Amino acid sequence: MDRAAAPEELAGSLLLLASRASSYMTGSVLRVDGGYAYRGIECDE
Questions:
Q1: What is the pLDDT of residues 3-43, one digit of tens each?
Q2: Nearest to 30 by CA among 14, 42, 41
Q3: Interacting residues of 1 by C-beta distance below 8 A, sequence separation 6+
Q4: Looking at residue 28, what is its pLDDT?
């Protein structure tokens, strides 16, 4: 997305991690980076 996230774009993820809804999550990576991790990776479809 070539931009930094606005605070309201992060709110959902942060609320999930701070709530009981995430009580069964372990060893997970929750990427909230606007696709930065996949930048430059081509998919063959």
A1: 889 999 999 999 999 999 999 999 888 889 888 888 766 65
A2: 14
A3: 34, 35, 36
A4: 87
Which residues, 6 or more positions from 17, have their beta carbon under 8 angstroms from its beta carbon?
Answer: 25, 30
- Give the pTM: 0.65
∠ CA 15-19-22 to the nearest 5 degrees?
A: 100
Terminal C-alpha separation, the chain: 22
Find tokens 């372990």 and name the residue.
26
Phi, psi of 8 (to 5 degrees): -70, -20
- Cβ-contact 20, 26 below 8 angstroms: no
